[in-house]
Amino acid sequence: MTDATASIGELLTATVPMVRTLNLEFLETTPERAVLRLPDQPEYRNHVGGPHAGAMFTLAESASGAVVLAAFGPWLTRAVPLVVRAEASYRKLAKGPVKATARLVRPVDEVVAELDAGQRPEFWVSVVITREDGDTTGEVSVLWTLRPHD
């Protein structure tokens, strides 16, 4: 775990109650990608014994937030990141712990150029959720914006 991973993980754990509730683990956080893990916890399983869809969505959304913070940290004095919309697809039954890997779809410099031009940029973060065997169990796309401070 790098210092950046630890500090973003600590920040999200301290400020986002669901991150603490689900005991999400921050494995990697860089401006290019974030990897989070949801441990297998009986209290968050669904009716077929896998992680509940809501827990998997929260894992994915949290991973998207981690990569957004890592990528746009230097500009957060000028704008606040907010989720605009999200789309989730569940592909295979998940059992046991799962990981979410989030990646920005647009280059950071394009988004910042729009912010510099006085716009409120929007950008997608793609998240893949996998089981321990590497099979993809779900995909989540999260549309974020950087809302400039007044």
UniProtKB/TrEMBL annotation:
Transmembrane segments: none annotated. Pfam families: DUF4442. CDD domains: PaaI_thioesterase. It comes from the Bacteria. This is DUF4442 domain-containing protein. The lineage of its organism: Bacteria, Bacillati, Actinomycetota, Actinomycetes, Kitasatosporales.
